[in-house]
C-alpha cells in the first residue's frame, strides 16, 4: 500500500485543526464522482479553503483523512489526530476514508479494494478496533446512500469487514514462508495453508513434494 501525503491547507471549511477524540469508528465513503482520481479529490477538499457555497447558498464543509484512488494509491489529506468533516456527529471520534470508483455502480477497482483492506487492517490494529463493529458506512451515521456500492450490496460490505478481520489474524511469518513454497512450485493453493483449512491429504501432498525438492 502506497501512501501519498497531500495535506489540506488549514482552514475553517475542510481542515479546522480541531483535536479529534478517542477513535471509535472508521467510516467508509464513496467519492461520489466516478472516474476521478484521489489526487483530484484531495485538491477539491483543499480548494474549499476559499469558502465555497452550494446551490442553497450555504458554505461547504467537507474533507476526509484518506482518499483511495482507482490505482490503489492512498492519499492522506488530514492527520489522524485532527477532525475531518465527513460524517456529521461522528467526526469527533472517527477516521474518514473516501474510495474512488471507475463508474456509477460505486464498486471499487481491485487495486482500490486491496488498499482499502490494507488501510483498514492498519487502522484497526493501531486503534485496537474490532473490524466487524468499528468499520461503518456513512449511511450508518446519516442514512445517506454512501458508499453506494456497500449500501446497495450489504453482503459485499459484510465480506469486506470479514476480510479485514481475517487479515488482522494473519501470521506474517507463515505468509512469507507460504510465498516461498509457492514460488518454488511446492504448493499451488496458498490460501489453504494461510487460513489453516488444510486436510490430511494436503499435508501428505506437501510432504511428498518437499521430499522431491530435497
UniProtKB/TrEMBL annotation:
Keywords: Cell wall biogenesis/degradation, Hydrolase. Residues 9-155 form the N-acetylmuramoyl-L-alanine amidase domain. GO terms for molecular function: N-acetylmuramoyl-L-alanine amidase activity. Signal peptide: none annotated. Pfam families: Amidase_2. The keyword Metal-binding does not apply. The keyword Hydrolase applies. One of its GO terms (biological process) is peptidoglycan catabolic process. Its EC number is 3.5.1.28. It catalyses: Hydrolyzes the link between N-acetylmuramoyl residues and L-amino acid residues in certain cell-wall glycopeptides. It is an enzyme of class 3 (hydrolase). This is N-acetylmuramoyl-L-alanine amidase. It comes from Zhenhengia yiwuensis.
